Amino acid sequence: MPDASPIQYAFNGGKLGPRVQGRSDLARYATGCNTLTNFIPTIQGPAVKRSGFRHLKEVADSTKKTRLIPFEFSREQAYVLELGEGYMRVMKDSGAVLESSVSVTGITAANPVVVTATNTYSNGDEVYLTGTAQAEVNGRFFTVGGATGTNFTLVGEDGTGRSTGSGGTAARTYEITDGVSSNSLPWLEAELFGISYVQTADVLYLAHGNHPPHKISRTSDTAWTAEAIVFDWPPFREENIDDDVLMTVEENTGSSKKVRLRGRVDDQLTITGTSNASPVVVTLADTGDLANGDTVYIDGVATATSLNENHYVVANLVANTSFELSGTSAPGAAGTGGTAEKLLSVDTPFTSDMATSGEEAYIKLREVPLSYVRDWVAQSNIVNIDGRWTANPPAGTLIAEDGRVYEWLNGAGVAAVTGKQAPVHDKVKDGYLSDIAADTNSRWRFYNRFSGYAKLAAVSSDLYTATVDIDVNMPYSMSESHPGETINPAGFFLHSASRWSMGAWNAEYGYPRAVAFYEDRLWFASTDKDPQTFWGSRTGRYEDFEVIADEDDSSLVFTLASNTINAIQWMSGEDVLLMGTLGGEFTVDAGSADKAITPSNIRVRRRSNYGSAENVQPAFIDSALLFVHRSKERLYELLYQFQTDRYVAPDLTQMSYDILSGGVVEMAYQAAPFRLLWCALTDGSLASLTYVRDEDVIGWAQHSVGGTSAKVESVAAIPHPDGDEDQLWAVISRTINGGTKRYIEYLEKPFADDGALADAFFVDSGLTYNGAATTSIVGLDHLEGETVKVVGDGTVQSDQTVTSGAITITSASKVHVGLAMPEAQLQTMRLEAGQPDGTAMGRTKRIHQSVFRVHNTAGTLKYGADFTNQDDWSSTTLYTGDTESLAMPGDWEQAGRVALAHDEPLPCTIVGVMPQLATESI
Predict the structure, then answer these.
(1) What is the mean pLDDT of residues 139-163?
(2) Domains parsed from the chain with CATH numbers
C-alpha cells in the first residue's frame, strides 16, 4: 500500500460538475472542487470565504419585488437605482440618497413614536433619523404615518419607556413616485426584470416590450426625472406601396385633425340629394362603378350635415340613380349637394389600441418629391419657378432642394427671389424648429423632407379615421386646408396619397425589448410585430430615427434573415454590435474595421446557434461578451478569435454544468478585487464566476445567504465609494419575525491582508456598532425576533435573539451583529495519487494525516473526508501558515476527498491542502 503526499495548491478551477469526477486528465481537475460554497476562488489560487452582506434599508414595499439597476456617471458618481412598481429610489456611497435634513424639535416615548420636525412629511414617505433623544431610532429608516402638520409617527415603532426630548435631524429618502398611472415609471412588478437598459453620461435609456422607450436623467443627487422619450423623429414601419390604399389629412398642421382613409379625389361622385330616412338614401348624378358592399366617404352635404366626413357601406344600389347608406338612421332633414367617394381599398392600418393613453402611435404621410413642390433655382423669382403663382407669393411658399423642403419667410408684396446659394440646414422637430439660412435676397426656413408625421389621439369605431396631433407639418398636397394660407393654387391641396407609413412602435405592434449604444447611435430592437428587426438612430442624434435617403448619418432599419422567427433578446455595442436572439447570436458591422455603419454598408452575420435567454442582459468582460443560453442554465462567452479570424462561443459551464440549475435571473460584474461575475438564480441562491480569460481562470462557486427562506432577487455592481474596488448590491427576501421582508444590502469588502480581526464582517443583513464600550446594541428592528450572531472586538459571543430591536451582549466597543452566514464549504475532487502502477481512481484509500495552509484565518476550521464526520482545528487569533499535521477522521473509502468547513462569523482563506494517504493495491 504505497503512501502519497499530494498537494492541491489552487482552487480556482472552481466547482466542477458530477460528470467530471473521473476527468483527472483535465488541467482544471487539479485545481477544481467537488463542493465550493460561500468560498470565492481567486485568480491567484486560494479560496477566500466571502464577506457578509451589510443591511441598508427595506425596499419601499416588501410585498413586491424590486430591481436594482446600476447608474455610473463616473467612478466618483456611481448610483444604484431601486426600481419598483411606480417608484424609484437612489442609493450612493453605501447609503440612500436623502433630501436636505431638517431639525427634530420633539420625539415621544409612545407607541407609535411621534416625531415633530421643522418640515412636513406625507404618509408613506421614508425618513432617516439621526441624533435624536432615542438611540434606538438613530441611523434608521422609517415609514411615515399619522402625518399632521409637522408631526408624524414612525410606523411600527414602539417607543414606550424610552427617552423623550428634542434635537437630531430627519431627512426624507429621495424618491420619484410619478408612477404607473402617469406613465413616467410604467413598469409593473412582473415587468421589472424584462427591462433592458443602457447608459450614456447622465441619461439611462430603458426598453420593455410592453411600454414606450423611457429615459431616466440625472442633474444632481436629488434631481432625477423619468419620462417616455419624445422622439425628434420616431421610427416608422415600411411604407405602404398599395396605390389603392389612400390617405388625406384634414389640415396639415395643428392638433385634433383628422387623417382619413380615402379614395381618389378625382373620382368623386356628385350627390344631388340625401333622404331623411332610415337608412339614408343617396341620390347621385351617376353612380359610376359603385357596387353593393363598397365603402364610400361622404362630404359636403348641405342641411343634413351629420352625414359629412364619414364612411358608409353601399347597399341596395340602383345603377346610375341611388344607393343606401347601410345601417344609418334618419339625420333629421334631407340634404342637398356634396360628394361621394369610393374607397379603392378598406385595408385600414388603424386599430383601437393605437390610441391608448400614454402609448403613443404615429402615422407619417409623404408626397412624391417635386410633384407638388417645385425645385430650387438660384436667383429666380418663385413666380418663374412655379407657374401656379400669378403674383408675388405669400410667406410660407415652399421650395425643394436636395430632398428637403423650405418655406419662404419674407412677407407679401416682396419679390420672392431664391437667392444666390441654396439652403442646406435641416432639423426636423415640431415642423419649424430649425436654424434660418439667410442671404441678401431672401430667407428660407427648413420645413420637412416631403413628409410629416402625427400622433394618434383617437380612432373611429370603423377604423377608417384617426384623430391626430401633428408633430411635423404634413405635406400641403395631402391636406384639405392649411391654417393661415389664403391663396390656394389649383391642384395644390387634397391629394389622396398612397405613400404613408405607421409608427413602428405602439400598443398594437408592441415596443422594443432591447436597447444599446454603438458607433454614436442609439439602437432599439425587437417588437412583437417585428421581433427580428432593429433600428439605429441618426449618428449623434439618439432620439432621431428619421430615415434619409443617401445620407450616411441617416437612421437605419434592418431585419435579420432567418428560417425561423427568433426574437432579438439583447444587444451590446463593443467593437461590433453584438446581438442575441432565441435562435442564435449575430454581429453587426460595416464590413470593415475602419468604417462606420451606414444604411448602405451594414453587414449582419450569424456567429453561433446557441440562442440567448429572455430578460437577462449579457455582461461584457475584457474582450468577451458573456451571455446566458436560452435555457438560462448555461453561460457562453462570445469572443473574436484572432487565430481563426472568426467569432467563437465556448460554454463556460461545460465543466460545471449544474452550477446554474434553476436558471439565471440577473447578472452583475464586480471587476475588483476578484473579477467576479455574479449570477442571481431563480432559487434565490448566487453563483459566482471568477473569470480571467488571459490566465485561463474559470472558477465557479455557489453561495447562499443567511436567514429563513432567504433569496437573492436582484444584483447590481458599481464602483465602491473608496474607489479601490467594486461593490455588489442585492435585494434579499427573507422571512423575518414571521413575515416577508425585502432588504437592500451590499457585500462588505473582503477581509484585508493587513486587517484587524475586530474589523472582520462575516454576518448577513448585518450592522456594526463602533463607539464607546457597551452591553446594549439597539436599532436592530429589521431583525426583530431573529437569532443573530455577535462579534465584539474580534471575539465571537453567544447568539442572541432580537427583542424590541435590541440585544444584550458582553461589553465591547466594535460589534458586528447579523444573521448567521451559511457554512462555507470546500471539498476537493477525488485524489489521483498514491498508486505507482496506474490510476488511484476506484481503489480504496485512506487519508490518515493532512496539513492545511491557511491565510488570515480565525475561529474553527472543520476538516474530514466529508461534511458529516469532521474534526476541528481552531485559532483565536488571525493565523497565516500551515497547520500541524492533523489526524484525519474517517476510514478506508474509494472517493478520497478532503472536506473543509468554516461556520463562524470570522475570516477564512484556504491556500493549500496537503493530505497524506495510503492507496490499496489491486
Answers:
(1) 95
(2) 3-50+823-919 (2.60.120), 98-173 (2.40.30.180), 264-342 (2.40.30), 763-820 (no CATH)
